[in-house]
Amino acid sequence: MGLVTRAPQGVELRGVEKRYGEVVAVRALDLEVRPGELVVLVGPSGCGKSTLLRLIAGLIAPTAGEVWIGGRRVDDVEPGARDVSMVFQSYALYPHMTVAGNLGFGLRVRGTPRDEIERRVAEAAAALGLSDLLSRRPGQLSGGQRQRVALGRAMVRDPGVFLFDEPLSNLDAELRLRTRDEIAALHRRLGTTMIFVTHDQVEALSLGERVAVMDRGRLQQVGTPDEVYRRPRNLFVAGFVGSPPINCIPLARDEGGRLVGGPFALHAPAGLDRATLGVRPEDLSLAGGGDGGDPTGAGDFRAAVLRVEALGSEQRVHLDGPGDAAWVARAGPSLRVAPGDRVRISIAWERSHLFGPDGRREEMAPRPMNRPASP
Amino acid sequence: MTRHLVLAALILPAVGCAPGESDTVLRVALWAGGHELEIERQVADRYEALNPGVRVVLESAPNGYEERLLTSIAAGRPPDVYLMDSPDIPTFVERGLALDLAPYAEALGWRPDRVFGQVADAFRRGASMFALPKDFTPMVLYANRGVLAAAGVEDLLPASPSTDEPVGGWTWTDFRRAAEAVVADTDGDGREDVFGFDFPRNLYQWVPFVWSAGGDILAPGGDGAAGYLDGPEALEAYRFLTALAEDGLTPGAQFVQQGDPAREARFASGGQAFLLSGHWTLPVFRDLVETGALDLAIVPIPHHPSRAEATSVLYASGWAVPPNTPRLRRAIDLAGFLASPEAQRIRAGSGLAIPSRIDVAAEIAAADDTGVEGAFIALVEGARMTWGARVRDFSRIEALAVEIMDRRLIRGEPLASSASDVARRIDAEFGR
Amino acid sequence: MSGARPPALAALAAVVLAAGLALVLAIAAGRVQSVRVAAAEAEGRMAAALWEEAGGAQSGARAVGGLLGERATILGAGDGGDRAGAYAYEAGALDPAAWIAVEPHGADGLPGTLPGGALAIALAGAALVAGWAARRRRGPVSSRYPRGIALLSLGCVALAAAIAGRWADGELRSLSAATAARGAQAVELALAGGADPARAARVAHLPWAEDGALEATSEQWTMPAGVAAAIAASPDRAGQPAGAPYTVEADGATWHVAHAADVHLAFLGYERTASPALALAAAAALAALLVALALHLVQLAPRPRALRRMLAAWGLLAPAATLILAFTLGPLLFSLWISLHEWRLIDPAPLFLGLDNYAALLADGEWGSAIGNTALFTLHVPAAMAVALALALLTRGSRRAMRWARLALFLPGITSVAAIAVVWKWLLSDRYGLLNRGLERVGLDSVPWLTSPDTALVSLMMIGIWMVVGYQIVVFQAGLAAIPRDWYDAARVDGAGPWQRFRHVTLPGLRHTLFFVLVTSVIGSFQVFGLVYVMTEGGPLGATDVAVYHIYREAWEFLQFGNAAAMSWMLFAVVFAATWLHFRFLDTRRAHG
Is the model's pTM score more than 0.80? Predict the structure, then answer.
C-alpha cells in the first residue's frame, strides 16, 4: 500500500490524575506505551479508561502528572498538535460532509494543499475499500462502512499514535470480529502505536500486544494477554479477564492453621488469615459417570450438576458447589453428564490462584491437604 | 332521584334571582370609560327607576368603539341605542343604520330649539333627525396665564370671551408674538424648556386655522379638495403653523395621531403657553385651576390678521337608534331620555363636553365661578361643525391630509406642492 | 358478521346522498320561506307606518286594507304574538295602538312550488345509489366503481343545487319587485290620505329620493348616490306608470325601483341580501364530501378492523376538526370571498368585484411600499440570528451568571408587545427620551429615532432584534446541546481551531435549527404590527407602514374590508413564496436524505 508511514511514537503517562471536584476519574497513573505497540485499555464501564484516552488525546487536561508523546511533554499542547488521531465510538462523522470530506477534514483544517489531500484521501480510501463511496454522505452508509470511514479519517493524517475509543461497540457480532482482525492487520501493516479502549476483555486479549486492565481509576495490571490471564495480579483482574469468569470461594484459617472453605482445606501461607481460592473453569476436570465415589485426589470434591450448556466445541457444566458457591466447569464435548448427576471434580492446583484479603495474588499456588476439611 | 331533587333545589333559587321574563333589556353602545362610565351608569339607573321592567346594559368600548359597533351591526345584533360620532354620521345615515327620530320628538319632549343650532344640524337632514345630540365641544386655545405673565406678554391675550361680547382681534400676529416671547431656557442647560405651542399635526386640530384664514379644505358641496385644500388661504395657514415649528416655538413635532404625549403635562407645569384642544381636556386641569396652581384662560383660536374673527370647529355626538332593533319604541324612548335635560344634568358631573341643551349648558356655566365654562359657550357661536359630519369616508381625507405639513417638516418640501398633491389624491378618492 | 356490513354501508351512502339532496332542497325552500316572512314583515311595517300617517284607527284600518287587502289582520296591541307584521302607532306616539298581522306570500302552497326537476333528480339520484347498494350481491361494485359513483352523486347534488338556486332566485326576485311596488303603493295611499308630501315617502321604509334630487351630485342621505344616479339614467324611469316596478343596476347589484308621484323608491333585491347561493354551494360540497366519506367506508367494509380504526380515528378527530373548520378554515374562506368584493362591513350586501381589488393593489404604490417596508423590516431577522447565536455561544453552560444572563435576554420575548412598544417609545423620544439625553450627556447629537423617515424603520428593527433574540437564544441553545460532543472532540483532535470548529461543526450542526428559526422568524416578521401600531402609526411619511398595519387601517379606519382581505391574501402569497424559497434553497434536510 502507498501510505507513507512515519516513525511511530511512544506514549508515557507519569503520575497522571484527573479529578472532577470530589470525584477522581483517574488516580496517580503511570503507563508507558512503546513506539509501535498496540496497547488495549480494558475495564468495566466507569473505570476511567476513556478518561485516560482523552487525557492522552488532550481533550481533557490532567489535574496532576505529565503526559509525554514521542519524547515531548504535551500537557498543555492542543490535541491537534499532539500527533495523535482518534477513532470515536460514535465515529463522530460529520453528516454534512461526504466521505471524502470527512476523510480529508483533518488535512484541510491544517491547510494541506488540495492535491495532497486528494491523493492521501484516495490512498486511505483504497486501503479501506471505500473508493466507491467517496461522494456519499455518512447517512447513506452502513454501520461497517461508517466505521471504516472513521478509521480512514484517523489514518489519513498519518499520526504517530492512534487512539481508539471503543470503535467496535456499535457493530454487530460478526462485523465486530472482522473489524477486529482488520485493525490487527492494520497495526501489523502500519506499525503505528495504537491505544485501544474497550470494555470487552475478549477483544482486549485478542487484539492487544499488551493489555492494561483498569478499575476505579487505577491501573490494575499491565501485561501481555497471556500474563494477564494466567498470572492476574489480583482478584479483580482474575475476575474480569476470562469467560466464563474465574470460580472463587472464600477461605478462612481454622484453629488447625489451615485455610478452609467449602470442602477445601489448604496449606496456609504465612500471615494469611483469610483468602480467596480462584480456579478457572478449564482447570476443573469432571470424572464422568454418577457413581459419586470417594474423591481420590487431594482437594477433589463432589457436587451435583445443575445445568449443562452444550456449546458444541465444549460444554459448560454448572455445579451446585463447592460449598455454597456455584462453580462452572469447562469440559470437552464428549463428557456425558446430566442435571442432577453427582460428579467428582478435581482441580489443577498448580494453575489455581490464592488471593489474599487485599485481593493480591499469592505467588505460591494453593496446595490442598490430604483430607477434606469436614466430613 | 334524590340527586335530581338536590339539583332542582340548587337551581330554583338561582332562577328566582334572575331578572323576570317581563324585563326588557336595552343595550346601549358608547365609548365612556372610568368616571365617565360611572356617570352614564347613573343616567341609566335613573331611567330604570323611571321605567320599571326595563334594564339598561351599557356596552362601553373606550378603545376601538367603531370596530365593535360596526361588528355588532354586521353580525346582525346591533345595540338598541348607540352613540354616533360626528364623522360616522354620513355613512351610518346613508346606510340606513339610524332611524329618523323627528316624528317622535314631540312624544319624547325633545325640543330642537333648545339645542345649540350647529349641533342639532349635524344630525339633521331636511326634516329628519338621525340622532338626538348628546354633547359637543369646540376646539379652543387653553392659555397658561402664568407662563405669559412671566414673559410679560399677558396683555396680548384677548379678554375672556363671554356671550355678551364676542371676541375678535386675536390675530395670528398676536398669537405668534406671545408664543415667541415665552420661549426660554429656564434651567440654563442650553436647551429650551418653555415653548409657545405644540405643533397641531392632525386635520381635526388645524382645520380652524384654515377657516380662520378665510379658506376651507373642501368645496362647499363637500365633494372636492383641489382649489381649497391647496388654496391660498389654506396655504397661509400651513405656512403659519409650520413656521411655528420651524422657528422653535414648539418642541419637535411627533408624527403620530396622538401627538406629543407630554403636551398636557408640559402645559400644566408651565412649559408651554398655549394648548389647542376641546372641552375634554378640561377635567385634567380642573384641580390645578381650583387650587390656583394653574392660571388658566380659555381663548379663541387666533385668526388671520386680514379677518375680523376666527371660525373654530365643533365635534358632537348623539344618541341614535338602529331601525331594526326589535324593541324599537323602547329604544326610541331610551334615546330620548339619554338626550333629555335630566340626563344631561347628571352627565355634567363628568365635565368632558358641553351639553347639547342650551339651558343645561347655561346652568353649568352659571355654576362655574372660574368663567371657563362660560368662555367655552361663548366660543360656540362662531364655530362650524366638522366636515366629517357631512362627508363620507372623511377618515381617509384626514389620513391623507396630515401629509401636507409632515412633508414640509420632514423633507422640507414646499407646502404648495405637497398640498396640491394631497388634494389631487383626495379628489381621486372622491371619484372612486 | 363482516359480510353483512358492505350492503349496510352502501345503504348508508345512499342515505347520505338522499340526505344531502334533501338538505339542498330544504335550504332553498327554507330561505325562500324566510324571505317571504321578511317581506311580509316589511309590508307590515309599511302598513303600520301608513296607519300612523293616516291618523286614527278608522282611516288607518282603511289604508291598511287598501294596501294589503285580505292578507292583513288588525289585532289589539297586545295580540301580535310572533306572527309576521308590525305594531301600529298613532302619529309620533310611543305606545302601540294595534298589531297588523300579515300573511306571507305563497304560504299556502309551499310544497307545490318546489321545482319538479330538482325533486326528480333528487329521487333519481337516491334511487340510483340505493339500486347500486342492492346490486352488491352480483359483485363488489363498490370497490370497482367508487369514483364513478362518487362523481355521479356529486353531479346529482350539484345539479339539484343549481336548479334549486335558480328557482329560489326567481322567487326572491319577484318578492323584491313586489316589495318595491308595495312601497310605491303605500306612498300613494299616504298621499291620497292627505299625508305631508315631505314625509309620505317614509311610509315605504325604503331608500327614496325625489325626482328633482336624483341628479344632484351631493350626498342624498336617503338613497345611496350610485342608485340615484342609476335611476336618473334609467330609460324605464319616464315610461313606467306609478307603482310598476322595474330594475336598475347600481353598485354592482340589482335594485327594484318603483315610483309614486315624484318619489322614487329603490329596494336592494333579496337576491343579493338573502341569496341562498353560498349556503347551497356549501351544502352541496358537504354532501359530496360525506358521500365520498361513506364510499370510502364502504371500501373498507371487507376489512372490519381497518373500518373500525378509521371510524375511531374520525371520531377522535371530529372535535378538533370541527373547531378548525369553524374558526380557522371558515374565516379563511370568508376572507377569500370578501376579497372579491367591496364591503364596508355595514353594507347590506358585499359588492362583487371579481379580481378588481387584487388588480388595483398591484398598481397601488402605498401598498407596494408597505410590502417593501415589511421586506426591509424582515432584514432584522438575519441580524437578530447572528446576535442570538453569538449570545447563545457566550451564555452556554450552567453557571449561575449564565443562567441569569439567559433569563434577562429571554424576558423581552415574554413581555407584551404593547408594553415594550410604549416603553421604547419613551426611551426613543426626541426630547425626553433616555437615549437622546444620554447621547447629549456624552456630547453627541441627539437622533430623531422615530421622527425621521430615515431612522424610524431602523429603530423598529433594532427593537425587533431585542425582542426576538431571547427566544432565538433558547432555540439555539437547544440546538447546540443536540450537537454531539464527539464532533467537537474529533475536530479538535484533527487540529481544528475555534473558528474552524464553529464553521465546520457548530454551524452545520445547527443547520436545522437555523433553518427553523429563520423560517419562523421571517414569517413572524412579516406579521409585525404591535410595534408599528403603538410607536409610529406607520409614519413618519409612511416609512414604517408595514403590511399588517396597512391592512388594519384599510379595514378598520377606512372600512375597506374587501381591499383589506385582498391585501391579506397577497401578504399570504408573499410569505408563502418566501417560505417556499427558503425550503427550496436552504433546507439542507433534503440534501442529506
Answer: yes
